[in-house]
Amino acid sequence: MQHVKRLIVEMHRRSIWKVLGVYLVGSWVGYQVITELTDRVGLPDWVPAFAIVLFVIGLPIVLATALVQEGAPSFRRSQPDFAPTDPTLLPIDLTLLPESATADRPATPEPARGLQHRLLTWNKAIAGGIVAFLLLGTTAAGYVGLRNAGVGPFGSLLATGELSNRERMVIADFQTLSGDTSLAAAVTEAFRMDFAQTPVVTVVEPAYVREVLQRMSRDPKSKLDADLAREVAIRDNIKAYLAGELSRAGTKYIIAAKLVSAKDATVLASFRETASDSTVIIDAVDRLSKSLREKIGESFRLLRADKPLEAVSTPSLDALLKYTRGVYAIDVDRDFDAGISMLQEAIATDSGFAMAWRKLAVAYSNSGRGRDLVVSAAIKAYQFRDRLTDIERYGADAYYHMAVVQDDNKAISAYELLRDRDPTASTNNLGLLYRNVRDNEKAAEAFREAIKRDSMLAVAHGNLFGSLFDLGRRDEAEQVAAMVERKFPTDPMVQQLKAGLAYAKGDIAGTIEGVTRARAMRRAALFQATTEFALADLTMVQGKLAEASRRRAAGAAIQLERGNIWAPLNRELWEVRADLDVRRDPVRAGQRLRAAVAQYPLEPIPPINRPYFNIANLYALTGDVAKARSTITDFENGTPAELRGNTTDNRLLLDGLIALSEKRYSEAVDLIRRTVELTGCNTCLHATMALAFEAASQPDSAIAYLEAHVAALRTNAVVDAFVLGPSYERLAELYEQQGNREKAALYAGKFVELWQNADAELQPRVQAKKQMLSRLNERR
Q1: Residues of the chain whose pLDDT is less than 50?
Q2: Which among 268, 610, 700, 738 could bridge 259 via Cys, Cβ 3.0 to 4.6 Å?
Q3: Where would I find the H helices in 680-740?
Q4: CA end-to-end span of the chain, whole Å?
Q5: Is the overall model pTM greater than 0.90, yes or no?
């Protein structure tokens, strides 16, 4: 113990503690500088680790140099203190002796400097440290240089030219040697999630692969093993595919993955990782994926910036398994009910699973569920968006503003940011938003860009078709329809577009045939409901009220069965419109409206799903202004402000209809015109504008709007269902009043042709127009 104390005393005396402190502080500062340079410059991860090794090696060298240069601590026993009893032995004060007594005393010689003094010097220690770190820097720079130049085993696949930046890549379904296919599927999905973070390659979406399989006359649900993945890649000019396998040894799991050239099946890179048990499989996938991405050529800086896979997706393997099954059910089987159920289970396991929330919101929307469910899931995805990849986070922000806030301009800005940051991101939703704000040129451009980025995105083709019709470019729209038929011959969209073209040409029989064929091609409940509604509109256009009512009821029944409790109310409101616009019986319409609201009260319906404005508009049109106003008061009191969206156009229209009902005609015309300008819809409210002008005793303006409506190019009967026949009928009457027999005859003939097979209750009006035609022809 005495030796230790003496060592500490000597170290204090010789400042070794100070040397140690300075070295440790300097090492810490140096390490911070190295890690900062590693991040900024993009050096390999092993550079900071090797720096630590050098600092550790340098520590004993520095301490040894300090001890040698300052002199080693003494461990000799000190002379004992004693008090001599013999006076002759008393100490002598040499300073009292004459100079002659001390002049001849020999000086104490300095000790000779040994080998350690010559080797362990401060100059050599500092020079050695500098040389060591220069070697580290040179090695790191050489490694990065060789990697970026594609030289030797360090060369990246981008540098060697094996792959190009943003190269497409197919991920095959991982094979399992342990029989656990669900776990293998989860590993495959985990790789997709992780590779979604990289900007150097683009993973081909499963939906795209299924379209390619269809073109290959293969079952789209085929398991994408390595051989089939290679065939898909070769067929679609994709250079590489990723294949792997999952095996088990006791409690351990071994995951192996290889990147393979599709052209000659050459293995471009292969790695393997081991997971000690199933709870750390996600970590193993993350390490393995990063090794592959590093080999491909992703920068070290971006690799380090990426979040761990468990932070991006979920730390729960069970949640990932359920998410994977849900995605498969939705994207492959098109079974939304089963997929939604699995996603809900995944979220129950990990409530912060942002990707599952986001997928659930989209699934709710695409399956026709209520807006309350879509909004709830989209809000959750937005709250947990930090657990999404950068690209997915941009998408979640955009979808939030699109579906929840309903602020088209903010949603457009978010989607434009996504488009600019990710050259592979779909611009389809951006196109839909452009259509919402009636910028059809930009909408068409966005849909074309979406097709360019993913040539097998069928929905973008259909949306482009619609935008081109909005722009009046029928020839281009027909070219798109032909392209869809070549690319997706078994997709119901082919028949839907044919139906749209037929309707644009006035061929209602051909339109009905196309919709009927499309309905037969897809049995999904949502599709069955929407096609029933389309057929209801088409038969309503022809004045076949009974058949239209049956079809509308059939579609509503499907919706109700799927949980849309507001479907019966919407069906009744549709009937009210029929009474108002087709039967021209506002008294009957008012009675039906009051009965519908009493039979199907709004209270059980989630507030944001309630058709407040539709009900209020109908109250205004049937003359019950007080109920119209109180309905909107209920909307404002019952709907959270942040979920109301932009209701400016709805309020303008309602105010216009109230003014019309209160016979404030000039004000009504102004308010409805402003609504048209705000929405940009050229035909949606033309019949309403004509009604207001006619009430204001301005028949010429009424005629102008009615003619604009009937002449507009459309591909469906959504707007025409209630007003096309009555518009022809009223144009004939107005022109006859003006003495324009030619135009009166033209529109009377169109009306008779359209309603020739109308229901018996409407036939008196058909007969009246036939008599008009006879009368007009007699005068010629």
Answers
A1: 4, 7, 11, 74-112
A2: 268
A3: 686-695, 699-711, 720-737
A4: 133
A5: no
